[in-house]
Amino acid sequence: MILQFIGFLVNLHVKGSPFLSRTKLPACAEIHVLLMSRRRCCICFGLHGDTDIKRGQIAHLDGNPENNSVENLAFMCLVHHDEYDGNTRQSKGLTIREIKHYRVELYEFLQGSFRPGAASSTESPWSNLWPPGKWTVEHDEALEFYTGTHRSQSVVFAVSQGPITLEDINACIPPHDVDWTESIVSDLVKRGWIQVTSSEPGRYELSTQGYQMLRALMEIPENIKDAVWRRVWLGEGEDEDGDLP
Ligand SMILES: [Zn+2]
After folding, report:
1. 51: CA distance to ligand 1 center in Å?
2. 17: Cβ–Cβ under 8 A, 6 or more apart, which residues?
3. Is 137-234 in CATH node 3.30.1490.180?
4. Bridge partners of 127?
5. I need a surface site. Which of 160, 165, 226, 241 has the fewest CB within 10 A?
6. Where are the domains of the chain?
7. pLDDT in tens, 67-90
8. Distance from the CA of 65 to the center of ligand 1, in angstroms?
């Protein structure tokens, strides 16, 4: 039952991406790209400074669908993916080097805009958003998770695939520094979202609290999550009352 739920969750996580459903991109590569890009198209960003969420796909930059190294992957909007993959690429002059440059700029922009503490100034900063009267502590946790670091998110999603070892988790989390990964895992255990599997010491699994947090995350509409994320990371949408648009 929980595994079915996780399958649903992962499908939900990559929704709007037909390319993903017909290929066997490894889950950790896929999650890495989606979390790093936050579904922003690197070409839209590079050429137009456009930071809007796009319906898009993960592109293999060298054109080889077998090369699933994260270095070879980039999230693109449908228009730019078509342009990059199709025969108009030559005329548009979009080169791999150019795309990789835009991707670096996009990732740096998204990470560099982080403003820690912005989301934790009051006890329940988002409870006026959605759904009226139904907001729970799990929804607060879900937004804390959603606006957290991409590495913490990657660890939770990796662990949600089933009881896995620290080494397996580390394989999913660049730069694959086991000490760093261990400290993230340890923080998440303290946070209560993951736990050591009681029947298999040395492996980690989602805790009940983590499961409830991810379920709450699914309930929150995308536009709310995006508005909160933009406010925390980009400082957008704040007015004098601190309300979101
Ligand atoms: Zn684009």
Report:
1. 10
2. 55, 56, 57, 58
3. no
4. none
5. 241
6. 2-112, 137-234
7. 988 889 999 999 999 888 875 555
8. 20
